[in-house]
# Entry
Amino acid sequence: MSTQPNQLPDRLWAVFKRVFCRIFSGDNVSVDEMEEWDSLSHIKLVMEIEREFHIEIDPDCIPSLYSDFSTILRFLQDSSVGE
Amino acid sequence: MSFNASYANGLFVRRFQAPERADVYTKLEQKIAAYFGRRHCVLTGSGTTALYTIFKALELPENAVVVYPDITCDTALNAAIYAGLSPVFCDIDPETFNLDIKRTLSVIEQTNARVIVPTHIFGNIMDVSDLNKRLGDREVFVLEDAAQAYGGERDGIKVGGMGEAAIISLGQGKLIDCGGGGAILTDSNALCEACRRVCTSMNDNPSRRVALKNEYMKEMFKLTKQDADAEDFPVQRDALQRKYKDIYLFRIEAPVLQVIERVFYSLDAEVADRRKKVGEFNTVLEKNKWVVLPRSLGSPVLWRYSFLVKGNRDVIFDSLLQKGIQASKLFPPLHRLYGLQDTKYRHAVTLYDRIINICLDFDAINTRNIARTIEDIIDEHAA
# Structure
């Protein structure tokens, strides 16, 4: 599925909103700032990202994505999701 | 008392072996115990660890049944899973949002439960004294979960002083946020000593926990993707959680202890701040025809200002978020984690469909404006 690069952050924020049921302000958010971003909700988040962007994420990547919004965004960009 | 917790994360190692530090630690436990009107306090790495520690200290047989309210935080449930116990769930009282005592007695009879975990949900005080009275001479241990409610009191007894033992949490987002930590409160010398023995055997190596957590997330991800619809998924999931339980069970760490030392004394100020906010919220919202507030017992201290709305909850919820009001729809009913039918848990299901929780961490000066914004949104969308 084709996604314009500038749409990617918005779509990823929408996934964050769906999973965590909250509005996000600012450019980034990290696991340290959100009590609700725990290991189980992280798995939900990754599965929701897979659904939204029609991709399969390697389980070995899961821990490195348990970090912050920017890291996940970069991962999607590197995975050519935005092309 | 000697406390010997090593803490290593690759950057530094701290040891609390010095006698003067052990003394500070002991005094802190004594002060916390005194605050809650308890004889003993045992500090732990987290609220979950505190629950787990009590379960282990009780030396229950494997798969002994523990009764939880159907609406509570799933991390409380995890403590029983880690301890090899069998959680069962009981519907809630729609008026208080807490355990329905009559149904609880029936669940105890049916399951031969050994422990019950009355929880002051969102800070609303559970009638533990009525529960104790009705339990009579049944051999069921009453483990009060005060993680969301400490600071509250009823009939001169503090929340945390009502069960045979209680736990509190000082972790992220709690009433006082020390970045971690929990505590066991009890009057029993024997239980206190048994809890200390359990704590001593726990790991205190954060880097090992990080490595374990990475493996756990990978395995849980694979399992959830492959088998989430399988009938035995809950069994597999619980087994995986047990396998990796050491991630979440640990002794209190030196840096957290130092924060607790500093911050615990701010509890009274936090209590006053929250009560003031809740008072103003009540003034605006308690007469709103679309809002159902829980029946209040004693003098609670709310972790979240929770209410049910009679219509269009999700639209109202989204509008609150759009206005920058931090709200949530916690907690999903626990029975659904096990694929159980909704029929026995209809009040919990109704609550989950209608609830809105407002986070009370905002600046007090904005309270009246926030309350009015909430009311305006409800009035606009509820019909």
